[in-house]
């Protein structure tokens, strides 16, 4: 029996496992790096062991340190979470050799699964459809093809090559990136990514839990998942589940996992891989099945039998989105910073199967969490469970749109637009969905009038906050002036550049006129603001309420409530129209050092992984100069133009912050 369990992972995964442990009476042990000292998963654990350092490789991937931590804390079992350790046969063997229970498939099975080519061979011998595999690029007969790492998973290191002329260089580049061997297989377009979650016990029983649709992806990684798939009918579901059972038995698998397939428009499917983890999208399966998959996973690890005779019936529809700290509009650039506020409305439960349809939140962060560069950018998973797919999509989109997410850039708006898109609602999704529909990258708050009203609300809330803190005359209405022509003004740096907000109040403290207009950054004169032409004034607005955190406006007979959360000079503005972040520009800014001309600066905090140029080297436009590693991803820095590298002040292994100088390029 598992008495005390160490989870060798962090964030929402650790919190999810701990939630079930508390329910079934198992004590919990967390591990944490330096930056995770006050993380939610550490606070919720019964015991916690510090792993000195910050990077993944120095902490959460240190096999010896994790085994020692489990022994020091008196744990008799280890759960690997959903990261790389869940697929590491060496770690699994170390746990077993230490006399502890390993919550996962046997080490021998993991050794087979790590070898992707061998896995495909065994599954093909069991008569499960598999795509051809080529390890020698010279033997590739046709294009396009996918280059994939021979080990690992999670979508890392995958490239599409469309012609023979670029194949050799692409293979070499992928080998450098993944640090190992690669193979090629045909690239099949217009396919869906379907997976069958399974549970297998040591007695030979294998139970599939329907299928999950995971086709909406970025960088070959899932961001929207649902069950059941809108493309799978009962007959196809039976075929997929049968193939999954055959694959599981061919590989000798025991535990919870997912058999992944590609599905084309004709209904043909091919085995991709067997992922030996409790998948991040297991929550949707829990919703429609009613089973706690973590509890079942622990039961099988203790040697127990699968407690159901066959696949459980599907109840309704569930959709999950992964809310990540990243900017979709800028090549999914990860974002760092302090999460000042994270509030999702109408949550019915967290980390456990829901008793009835509603919203479930599995989050690894809370208000005040620091989002650093060392870990995955996922903040939370939000799940909607409803009687039908349309109801689930509508519920989830509405909750996301009303979520207050302040402090870091996120993919929230993109997720809302995907869920509301007519093609998604019609079930017309595949792995190329985001490429075909660039309109989903637009921000929710996009109409001119909505942006203007948000700016006005921010200015009114800022004035109310200053008035409330004033040592004298704090009872006067905000913006009141003896001289009727006087106006209140503020300048914000918004999503599209500086904007001026101005408004005038009458003698009764009522809004007498207002305007919002763009300001040319090159001609920004903060001392000369406040004189808007008459034709720049906007339609009348009545201020119903103007507090420091909430402004209610009556716009042509319609009331609009706007929430404003101020952190220093930044206002986070949320309304039914969407959200916007506005940074107030000081009228007396401190002088800032000028950037070196032709300098290349770090777009985000990270560690310099590779430096490919030296001072004096001539480079072409678009040539790779160096790479940064942040949030478990590699980010390239290319030459913006042809020129000569005049200096490179960073070296591999150095940690840099946003805006730090990486290189100086003298353009030709």
TrEMBL record:
GO molecular function terms listed in the Swiss-Prot or TrEMBL record: ATP binding; biotin carboxylase activity; metal ion binding
Start and end residues of each ATP-grasp domain: 115-302
Domain Lipoyl-binding: 585-666
Keywords: ATP-binding, Biotin, Ligase, Nucleotide-binding
A Pfam short name: Biotin_lipoyl
Requisite cofactors: biotin
Keyword ATP-binding recorded: yes
Annotated InterPro entries: ATP-grasp, BC-like_N, Biotin_BS, Biotin_carboxylase_complex, Biotin_carboxylation_dom, Biotin_COase_C, Biotin_lipoyl, CPAse_ATP-bd
Sequence ranges assigned to domain Biotin carboxylation in this UniProt record: 1-439
Name of protein: Propionyl-CoA carboxylase alpha chain
Organism field: Actinoplanes derwentensis
């Amino acid at each position: 029996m598992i008495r005390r369990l160490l989870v060798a992972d962090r964030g929402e995964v650790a919190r999810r496992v701990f939630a079930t442990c508390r329910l079934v009476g198992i004590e919990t042990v967390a591990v944490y790096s330096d930056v995770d000292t006050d993380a939610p998963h550490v606070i919720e654990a019964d015991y916690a062991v510090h792993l000195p350092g910050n990077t993944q490789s120095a902490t959460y991937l240190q096999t010896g340190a994790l085994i020692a931590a489990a022994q020091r804390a008196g744990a008799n079992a280890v759960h690997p979470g959903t990261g790389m350790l869940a697929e590491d046969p060496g770690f699994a063997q170390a746990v077993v050799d230490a006399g502890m229970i390993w919550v996962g498939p046997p080490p021998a099975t993991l050794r087979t699964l790590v070898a992707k080519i061998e896995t495909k061979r065994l599954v093909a011998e069991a008569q499960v459809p598999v795509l051809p595999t080529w390890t020698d690029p010279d033997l590739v007969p046709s294009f396009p093809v996918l280059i994939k790492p021979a080990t690992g998973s999670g979508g890392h290191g995958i490239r599409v090559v469309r012609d023979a002329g670029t194949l050799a260089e692409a293979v070499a580049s992928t080998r450098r990136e993944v640090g190992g061997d690669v193979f090629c297989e045909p690239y099949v377009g217009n396919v869906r990514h379907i997976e069958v979650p399974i549970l297998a016990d040591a007695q030979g029983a294998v139970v599939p839990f329907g299928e999950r649709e995971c086709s909406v992806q970025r960088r070959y990684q899932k961001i929207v998942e649902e069950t059941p798939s809108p493309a799978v009918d009962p007959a196809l579901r039976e075929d997929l589940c049968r193939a999954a059972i055959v694959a599981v038995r061919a590989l000798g698998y025991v535990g919870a996992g997912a058999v992944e397939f590609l599905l084309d428009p004709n209904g043909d499917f091919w085995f991709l891989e067997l992922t030996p983890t409790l998948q991040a999208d297991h929550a949707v399966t829990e919703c429609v099945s009613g089973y706690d998959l973590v509890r079942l996973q622990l039961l099988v690890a203790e040697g127990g039998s699968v407690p159901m005779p066959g696949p459980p019936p599907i109840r309704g529809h569930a959709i999950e989105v992964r809310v990540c700290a990243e900017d979709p509009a800028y090549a999914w650039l990860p974002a760092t910073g302090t999460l000042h506020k994270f509030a999702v409305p109408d949550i019915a439960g967290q980390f456990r199967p829901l008793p009835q349809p509603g919203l479930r939140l599995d989050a690894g962060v809370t208000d005040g969490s620091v989002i650093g560069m060392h870990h995955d950018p996922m903040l939370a998973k939000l799940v909607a469970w409803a009687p039908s797919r349309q109801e689930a999509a509508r519920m989830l989109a509405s909750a996301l749109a009303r979520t207050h997410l302040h402090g870091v850039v996120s993919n929230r708006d993109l997720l809302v637009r995907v869920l509301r898109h007519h093609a998604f609602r019609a079930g017309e999704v595949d792995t190329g969905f985001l490429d075909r529909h660039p309109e989903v990258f637009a921000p929710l708050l996009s109409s001119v009038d909505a942006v203007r009203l948000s700016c006005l609300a921010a200015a009114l809330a800022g004035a109310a906050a200053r008035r409330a803190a004033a040592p004298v005359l704090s009872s006067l209405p905000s913006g009141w002036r003896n001289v009727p022509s006087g106006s209140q003004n503020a300048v914000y740096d918004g999503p599209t550049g500086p904007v001026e907000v101005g408004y005038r109040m009458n003698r009764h403290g009522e809004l007498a006129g207002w305007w919002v207009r763009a300001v040319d950054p090159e001609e920004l004169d903060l001392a000369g603001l406040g004189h808007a032409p008459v034709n720049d004034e906007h339609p009348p607005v009545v201020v119903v309420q103007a507090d420091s955190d909430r402004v209610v406006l009556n716009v042509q007979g319609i009331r609009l409530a706007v929430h404003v959360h101020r952190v220093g000079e930044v206002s986070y503005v949320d309304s039914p129209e969407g959200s916007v972040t506005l940074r107030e520009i000081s009228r007396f800014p401190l002088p800032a050092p000028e950037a070196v001309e032709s300098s290349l600066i770090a777009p985000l905090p990270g560690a310099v992984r590779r430096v490919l140029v030296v001072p004096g080297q001539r480079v072409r436009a678009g040539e790779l100069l160096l790479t940064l590693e942040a949030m478990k991803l590699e980010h390239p820095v290319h030459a913006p133009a042809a020129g000569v590298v005049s200096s490179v002040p960073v070296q591999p292994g150095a940690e840099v912050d946003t805006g730090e100088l990486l290189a100086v390029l003298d353009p030709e």
